[in-house]
Amino acid sequence: MKLNYKTINKEDIEIILPLLRVVNTTTPIDILRKRLHEMSAYSNYECVGVFDQETLIGISGLWYATRHYIGKSVEPDHVVIDEKYRGKNVGKLFFAWIYEYTKKKGCEAMELNTYTSNRKSHKFYYNEGFEIYGFHFLKILRENTEFY
Question: 47 forms bridges with which residues in the sheet?
Fold first, then answer.
């Protein structure tokens, strides 16, 4: 296994769709595709990947913001490691790279959300030194109130 890490160009953002489907099975693919392109257009978003040689095996979106309570922060989003590579330290190595990468961009803190049912991610983030400071609330404003 030869790991390398890099940002995913906006023009290539659709290469993350197969991994994104692992954590998002309910959103129709055309909506996911549209949202990815919309997200990629924001100046405070980028997507990074971990590759085994040239094969994409892990992804994380990175949202940047300055918050009154912590300063410049980054929020990893839609973090996924290919199932075949789980339990092989890939997530830990990927996050070590993300920490350094975002510190070089001036980030002082990292915060994230994870689904309450995703217990494996909770264990991972606890082991990475994350602490729970609050709750993430969601209210759907569109007419169709389904979560997708």
Answer: 8, 61
Question: Could you tell me the residue ranges of all domains in the chain?
Answer: 3-113
What amino acid is encoded at 135 in this protein?
A: F
The answer to whether the CB of 62 falls within 8 A of the CB of 4 is: no
Of the pLDDT bands very low, low, confident and very high (cuts 50, 70, 90), residue 4 is very high
Bridge partners (DSSP) of residue 4 are 51
DSSP three-state, residue 11: helix
CB 45 within 8 A of CB 33: no
CATH class of 3-113: alpha beta
The answer to whether residues 114 and 60 touch, using CB atoms and an 8 Å cutoff, is: no
Q: Record the pTM.
A: 0.94
User: What's the CA gap between 93 and 3, in Å, rounded?
Assistant: 9
Confidence of residue 44 (pLDDT cuts 50, 70, 90): very high
Chain-centroid distance of CA 78 in Å reads 3
